[in-house]
Amino acid sequence: MFHSFSYRGHTIHIAIPDRSSVEEIKVQFHKPGGGFDLVPCKTLLGAKRRITRYVRKQARLDPPAGER
User: Fold this and answer.
1) pTM beyond 0.85, yes or no
2) What does the alpha-carbon distance between residue 42 and residue 24 come to, in Å, rounded to a whole number?
3) Which of 8, 20, 22, 49 is least enclosed by beta carbons within 10 angstroms?
């Protein structure tokens, strides 16, 4: 079974290969140039936290156009 959903503009993928297997959770960070990074996480909450940190970091690095 495989699920994907968007969170804050990025994607979380959850894969469960078999009923007896452990789920695999990965975060897909979308880059402005069109590429992406796929990063494994242990929990869904950990994946959401990682995306939140990434979004906040990007906001600090890229100030709005009027503030440059």
Assistant:
1) no
2) 8
3) 20
The model's confidence at residue 8, banded by pLDDT at 50, 70 and 90, is: very high
Helix-, strand-, coil-residue percentages of the chain, each rounded to 5: 30, 35, 30
Cα gap 23→16, rounded to integer Å: 5
32 in a structural domain: yes
- Residue 57's φ and ψ, nearest 5 degrees, are -65, -45
In a domain, 67, yes or no: no
Q: Which domain holds residue 46?
A: 2-62
* Distance separating alpha carbons of residues 36 and 6, to the nearest angstrom: 14
For residue 68, being part of any structural domain is answered with no
Q: Is 9 helix (H, G, I), strand (E, B) or coil?
A: coil
